[in-house]
Amino acid sequence: MRSSSASDNNELYGILEKRNINEVQFGIEKRFKTWYGNAVYFANDRKTLGYKSKSTSMTEKGNEIKTEEGQYWLDLLYVCEYCFKYYDDGDELLTHEKICIYKSKAPGRIKYASPEYTIRRVKGTKHELLCQCMCLFTKLFLDNKSVYFKLTSYEFYIVYQNKSTKPLGFFSKDLYSYHKNNLACILVFPPYQKMGLGTLLIEFSYRLSKHEGLISGPELPLSPFGLIGYLKYWSFAILWCLTEGELSGVAKVSIENLCEVTGIRVADVIMTLKHLKCLTNDNEILLPAVRKKAKNYKVERGFMIQDRYLLIDD
Length: 314
Known about the structure:
Among the domains are: 15-54 and 66-102, N-acetyl transferase-like (Wheat Germ Agglutinin (Isolectin 2), domain 1), CATH 3.30.60.60; 223-300, Winged helix-like DNA-binding domain superfamily/Winged helix DNA-binding domain (Arc Repressor Mutant, subunit A), CATH 1.10.10. Residues 1-9 and 55-68 have low confidence and may be disordered. With 314 residues, the protein is α+β, with helices and mostly antiparallel strands. Strand 3 and strand 4 (86-87) form a beta hairpin. It contains nine helices and nine strands. Strands 5-6-7-8-9 form a five-stranded antiparallel beta sheet, with helices on both faces. Helices cover 32% and strands 16% of the residues. Keywords: Acetylation, Acyltransferase, Metal-binding, Nucleus, Transcription, Transcription regulation, Transferase, Zinc, Zinc-finger. One of its GO terms (biological process) is regulation of DNA-templated transcription.
């Protein structure tokens, strides 16, 4: 049984136990199913999108939020693939995309520019509506995504293909994080998954925190999918550091050494080394096992983020 406080939080953040929107039309050409429910899009009648209704929000305290088996509040949500504004009518989306300001010019400042990808820093203070709409969209694909308002204390790092203004994915960063986390939320949008973009964004988040002189990591707890992605990155980063990088010629390496060089937190380093079966019960790193694992991870290929394309000095 859920506590009353948990129920209140679910109502506040629009969290549902079942999907309430069947599919998303993302731009003109992309259509796919949602993964999770999101009540925040709707007014009290569960049919009208909130921006079209003068009634109170579905998330106002006291309103009951439920879905019924096999029943959707909306069969198809139309979302602009440039700014994430949303509609329940395809013609409205077509009209909007013709004049969307982010179609001709992506927001924010470029912080990484390789021949293939560009990462832009978008401040919640300057592009609040875009960031809010993007967070609402994200809630359809992350079950633990909560924040979609009061985004002025967040920065968003959005990845684009070079010479394109269509966002592929993003991560957010809480500027006032008590634990100095380098990432609050990460999502690669469904049409662009399995392209290595999650790893690209995670790598970039660590480049930012290392540039700030921090040993850091993501906001906890991680979702199951998030943990898989991070274990993949942490494993690669640690194995590369020990076999190809700064600590490759060192006879004995401590966990603290690894943290300083990789920028990964102590707990995350220990968990990863245990996952790799490269750590003794006394927290001694088994370097022979590390070298063997490194071959499986093909660490010689190096990282996706290349220093020469970084633009993070300001």
